[in-house]
Amino acid sequence: MTTSSNRDQASRRRGSVEIRPMVWADMPDLVGTFDATWKVQEDPEGTVSRLSAAHFILHYLVGATRARIAVDGQDFLGVTLLAEGRGELCFPQAEEELEQVDQQLSATTLGAKTLDRARQWQLTEVRLEEQRGLAVPPQAELRLFLVSSRARGRGVGGALWRDTLEHLDQAGIERFYLHTDSSCDVGFYDHQGMERLAELKGRDHAAFAGRDPSDDPQFFEGIDDIFIYGARVSDQLGKDGDHGGR
């Protein structure tokens, strides 16, 4: 795992909440929390839903140079995954693991449809980034900011947020951006005074992607609005907040 300073490598405690570097053994907690937050509703047995969660977590880990989790003892509370556009990757094995998960998803009809939806979503995010000229250093991307529902109201989101901002400041990175959608608490970013750099309404998703909505009406009719927010690190350091979202 790459570190920009000894302070970044060390665990930090805020009350009973400890923020520490993520290790690979934390993966089941991340996948389980993501799955509990964004289940595949068409999968009552949960196998495809959990594989879908693993796909998203691994997708965010590919390219991540900093991964931090919040815990209270053995209880997983939240995570931030950051891509700084430089430095060593946290988990080089993530790409190979992602390929294996995608192969498992492709083995069933529902799994293949779920994987297609995930990739469709991710390609749309990339296109929005390209339109705004975001996918270039020195801007960093906060690829995942997720807080467990069990931790809401405990200040976990605020602690993870400030931990990320302080790291970016120490690393000399002036600006960062993130993706979010209407299934999350988008108002948090507005409250923080972040700039809404891009917005794609759900009703416009199919046309933007060049897809026929009749190919998968359940997906396109219920799809969330997508947003990209950005900010200067220095403008955010004096602000606090609590949020859990993708």
UniProtKB/TrEMBL annotation:
SUPFAM superfamilies: Acyl-CoA N-acyltransferases (Nat). It comes from the Bacteria. It holds the Pfam family Acetyltransf_1. Residues 17-215 form the N-acetyltransferase domain. This is GNAT family N-acetyltransferase.
